[in-house]
Amino acid sequence: MNSIKTSNKSRIIPVILFSIILSISGCDKRSDTVRKSLDLAESLMESHPDSALSVINSINDSDMTEYSQKARFSLLKSMALDKNYIDTTTFDILQPAINYYIKKGSPDERLRTYYYQGRIYQNRNERDSALHAFIKALDNIDRCRDSLTIARTLVAQSIIYESYYDIDICTNNYLKASQIYRDKSLKNHELDCLFNALDGLIVLENKEDADEILKSLISFKNLNEKQKKELASLQLSYLIQFGSHNDLKNFINNNQNNLIYDDNSILNLALAYNKIELNGSAKQIFKYLDESNMTYDTLKYLSIKYRVIEDLKESEQALLIYKDYVDRLESINSAKFEQKSQSIEERHQMELQAERDAQKNFRIVCVLIGGVVVLILVVIILALVAKSNKTKKVLAIQKVRTAELENDNLKSERERLTLENTNLQLERDKKVLEAENLAHRVEVLEGESESLKALLDTPEEIPMEVQKAIQTRIEMLNSLLAGYITDNSKYEEPYDIWVKQLTDNTAEFMNSNRLAFQASHPKFIRYFEEHGLTESEINYVCLYAIGLRGKEVGNYMKKRSHVNISSAIRKKLGIDKHDTNIGIYVRKLLKTL
């Protein structure tokens, strides 16, 4: 019965392990699918935001196993909703990105997160919170690469600053954004920013910069009808502020069809008529506005109409209009003050919340520090107790080790004496071996000298140049022999000089070397002559015969073409380049012939 239970367990364990492996591999596969979908959505975000949103909505929440994936999904979905003009007023979707990217994200990820956080605040009409988010978004723009989000953040800030009547910052932001859109070749976005910037510069009465922006706008080609009318309306505003009566008249006459861009542009035309003293035409515009259902800036309407009616000497009506204008202006100023007070109160509440958070964090830090100090004290006490016990143990061990060390010292002394005796014996053996080697070298040199002398004494006639080469070698061998016998380097000096002189002259040495082999090994030289080798090729072969290797032969001859010489010799001797090394072949031939 027990054996049956054991058998069942042994079968269950592999099944469980297999299931775990499948689960892990399945998770990896799902995670990879999510990553690819997010990559696709991000690639479609600018050109096809509707398709990007569809891809994001197709992702299953349960397939996202990593928090970084959830954060990326959260941010991309918020981007897609915003680009599809779906305004959100809650942080349900964006919150995972806020929680993750604000602390752990790259500069670009933090930029995007803060920007879309600000967009949600804008949708909730919480302008101060939105402005704070946009400011945080631009904190690290020097390290950001997402220039489009930077431009959008600058534009979003401008809208808020415009509502605060901070025209200066608003205009500067539009100019910065226009530069980014120009670099990205986004003409329509650049135009919108330049239109707004020019409007701000006209209000600020900054003619110098306004002239530069207007010149840039006029240089644009292929404007659509809407853009042409907006540009004409801004040109009219520019001339009202900076132009002469004649400039205004000429411009109105030449651009009648483009001056009415929107409802408020009609008021600009009325103001222009007033400035060039065509108040009758201006009055007709107000009559047209009164009879239509058009919407316009009421305060601007009253301020211009008052000037027109007053210039037409209709004092009673002008007074009524002026009174209405003052009442509305006071109402707007009151609303502005209330709005500003509310904004100040909101900032104060934010500062109080930040202070409370800082105090809370300080208390947490103090508690953590206190805990660490207590822990350190406990560790120190435990360490002191352990050190005391360890000291006692170390003293006992030290006594034992001292006795062992004394024994080791005695043993080491005996080993040292034994090693010295061994070294003395090796030194004696070395001297004996050196004496034997010297005797052997002397015997070899004597044999070589006698062999060369025998060649000179042979009855066969030897050419004079060969005799001369043999005689020179005998003299040098005698010098080298005397040096080995007497162990005196002075005897070797003539040999060293001869070797240097001879080897320094490559051609002379190679000829001498061949002549020596011709005298000592005539069959060896004859073999190469019979195979058609030239004298210079035989000189080359004799370098291998004295023991040089291919690289050494090339270095000595100082010719890069020695490989070609070797190839020609191989061909004449019938040696394939894969058969054998030419040096081995020559030395083997020297021994056999």
Commentary on this structure:
The protein has 593 residues and is mostly helical. Among the domains are: 8-258, Serine Threonine Protein Phosphatase 5, Tetratricopeptide repeat; 447-592, no CATH class. The chain has helices spanning 2-44, 49-57, 67-83, 95-104, 107-123, 127-137, 147-163, 167-183, 187-203, 207-218, 225-242, 245-254, 263-275, 279-291, 298-311, 315-457, 464-486, 493-504, 506-520, 522-530, 535-545, 550-557, 562-573, 582-592. The longest helix has 143 residues, at 315-457. It is elongated, with a radius of gyration of 52 Å. Residues 1-11 and 13-26 have low confidence and may be disordered.
Task: Report the CATH topology name of the domain at 8-258.
Answer: Serine Threonine Protein Phosphatase 5, Tetratricopeptide repeat
Q: What is the CATH H-level superfamily of the domain at 8-258?
A: Tetratricopeptide repeat domain
| Relative helix content | over 70%
Can you name the CATH architecture of the domain at 8-258?
Answer: Alpha Horseshoe
Termini separation (Å)?
90 Å
* Strand percent estimate: under 5%
Shape: elongated
How many helix segments?
24
Question: What kind of sheet is the major sheet?
Answer: none
SSE run: HHHHHHHHHHHHHHHHHHHHHHHH
CATH class term of the domain at 8-258: Mainly Alpha
What's the overall average pLDDT, rounded? 80
> For the CA atoms, what is the radius of gyration?
52 Å
Briefly note the structural class of the backbone: mainly alpha
Query: Total strand count, please?
Result: 0
Low-confidence parts: 1-11, 13-26
